[in-house]
Amino acid sequence: MSVLETPINAAAADADVKLVPGKEFKLPTAVFAIDAHPAGKRLFAACFDGSVFEVSTETGERKLLGKHTSFASGVRYLPKADRVVSAGYDGALLWMNPAETKPLRTVAAHKFWSWKMRVSPDEQFVGTVTGQYAPGDIKYTPAAEVEPSIKVYEAATGKLRWSFPHVPPTLSVAFSPDSRYIAAGNLMGEVRVYDLQTGKQAAAWTTPDFTCWGIIKSHHYIGGIYDMTFSADGKDLLVCGMGPMVDPMAGNGKQTWQRFAWQEKTPRKISEIKETDAGGGLMEVLRFHPDQKTFLMSGRLAIGKWNTAIFDAASGRTLHTADTKMRVTDATWLHDGAQLALSGMTGQGKKTKEGKYPEFGHVKLYDFQRKV
Amino acid sequence: MTQDNEPIEGMGQCNTPDHTIHRRKFLQGVVGAGAASLMSWNGLFSMNAFAAQAKKQGKHCILLWLCGAPSQFETWDPKPDSIYGGPFGSIPTKIPGVRFGEMMAKTATIADKLSIVRSMKTKQGEHFQAISLLQRGAPPREPFVRPTLGSVLAQQLGHLDSPIPNFILLDPCPEGNEYKEFKAGNWAGWLGAQYGPVRAGGEYKLADVKRLADTTTQDFEQREALRKFLTRKYENERASAAASSQNAVFNRVKGLMSCADLFDLDKIDPKDRARYGPGTFAQHTLMARNLVENGAPFVMVSNGMPWDAHVFQHEIYQMLVPEVDKVIYNLITDLEERGLLDKTLVVMMGEFGRTPWLNVARGRDHYPDAWSLAMAGAGIKKGVVVGATDSDGIDVTEKPFDEKNLFATIFSALDIDPYAEYDEADIATFYRVEDHAAPIKEILL
Q1: Which domains does chain A have, with CATH numbers?
Q2: Given CB atoms, is B304 within the 8 Å cutoff of chain A?
Q3: What is the value of pTM for the model shown?
Q4: Which A residues, 155 through 174, put their C-beta within 8 Å of a C-beta on chain B?
Q5: Which secondary structure element, helix H or strand E, spans residue A130, and what is its range?
């Protein structure tokens, strides 16, 4: 059962919200992350083949800006600086000028993958998280980190500003709206929040609802917090992933988000997805709408009817669900929230008889409609 | 803590060193005299003495059973330049021109001690059937049940009166979907239950193998000698198979009582445990090394079926592959340092491979069309890679081999006739390897 103490915002709760499918673009390989230029005519896509593309939202034409030596896992556009920053499973951060086709700067951030990368709202910091899952005991509890799990770089210079510890693998990261705090979540459901002014840990807690220890096929942990975002006032932190599974290889845990009042002395869960609204599948994306009245959670459909849902920000009520027919890996709002872009993948597919490889990366645009 | 060369107290040794005569002589003595003996069982089977005998005479086999079917791309046959290659790169190995997946970094340094088969091509893509195929070496021919590799090797390499079981399955994960079903079935087939596995490890600790505290050694031996005398008498006079089986069970239990320490992880040198890594698979592979060192003919190590990554292939393999890399490196190195590698065949495989293409859940699915395995040790050439797949790993381009070729190779490597006819009552004509399938000669010494 959900715990709900936040007052319901009647206006938002009564809203009729809909995602109406629009244009769709294919890319050669899966799109791991996406971000938008504020004008909404250009997207930036990080792909499995390491490519970072600029993609036109009108024509789907793409331009290669840079390339990682492994999967590209994150991309963000910095409007003030007119720069694109990407991260990859090569552990590198790339800085790119979208007017050029060659990276301006490459920083070796991690020895292992960058699982997730975010840019602070004031564009001062680039935060990236890493960590390889190595067995720490006979039950495969993760071993301690061998390199800092959280790194914060200056966006303008690429210089390392902070390194923070966590337990690997650290899968998700988010900055507070005032750019003062960075939060990171890991495989074991542990969240740590650090103060970027003092370098001190501001909060830490563990939610047990995103992680399971394999019983059926194997004995190890799987799951974790795959994305997170602060509320507009910075007081709450929302996290997502999926609930425990009996078979850790099934990927069918409950589609789950939880909301925490993280600044309280003991961080407290204040709401979560309603039990009956959730299907099964890993949720990898959590985004507030620009007006902050709703938020989106998206990922994979394993059980149920949806892999993308819009929730009322105040009450947590599910307002709209959709099956996007792909695994969603990232989302970004365009035109002040009038349009939504989802990135993702379908199955990679066999090479055709003609020797061609099927394109399996997707960007799908949706009109966001709300009738009050 | 102990020093490197110091045995851990109780490890590999029985408690009372006062009796060291050979067990067979003892048995002959008991039967011949037809009288109770006061000798100590605990002292009979000095592990060191038995291991020395086994080293002189026997060959061993360790099967690292990577159940669930490991991906060839992230291990033995990487394709980093292919769109199907995944996020991991490849690294050079000790074999010139041969590369492994980048997470096999330690094993790459001992590649010159291994043989890699990159061209396995089998026909079964479902777990249960494929597990059976790769454990038995042939498809089913009902109603007959072909013995598994472990049972055949137990029969061929072991001794029924050995205190250490001839077929040990170290299997700390009791579940495993289709593997669980397989485990519940008949391993020994027509060879008979005496060649089935003794299952131990993890949650399968050997229970009730300690002599009761209020029973003295003398009492125990007197009772045992009397029991043996009476049941042997009954067995001989009545030609009773039941009594014979009961005696076999008693012998098995007594054997386990004498070597129970070998199944206790807490009795293994902490330095060794740290080297192998803390996970259950690593710890039980180390246990397998100790068991072989002490005379076990066949030990199979598995850990559920974790390699079946239909979801998040790379995210799961970033944990599994480094563990198995460290395990293989340490096992092969240890066996070599102990002079056991030439007598111990190590086989590292699952039941098939994984698809080149990722599914929507970013997993790789079942793929028997082109997959890899590795072998090392007894009867196997060092530093050989045989067979090849195309640039995307979709199909075998050189020298396809199937389960029959594999089993012929294993038997040949262990000096066991691959084509022997099973001479068992009430079964049709079967051969150890059917169709006279050829071994993989390229990797055989």
Answers
A1: 2-349+358-370 (2.130.10.10)
A2: yes
A3: 0.89
A4: 169
A5: none
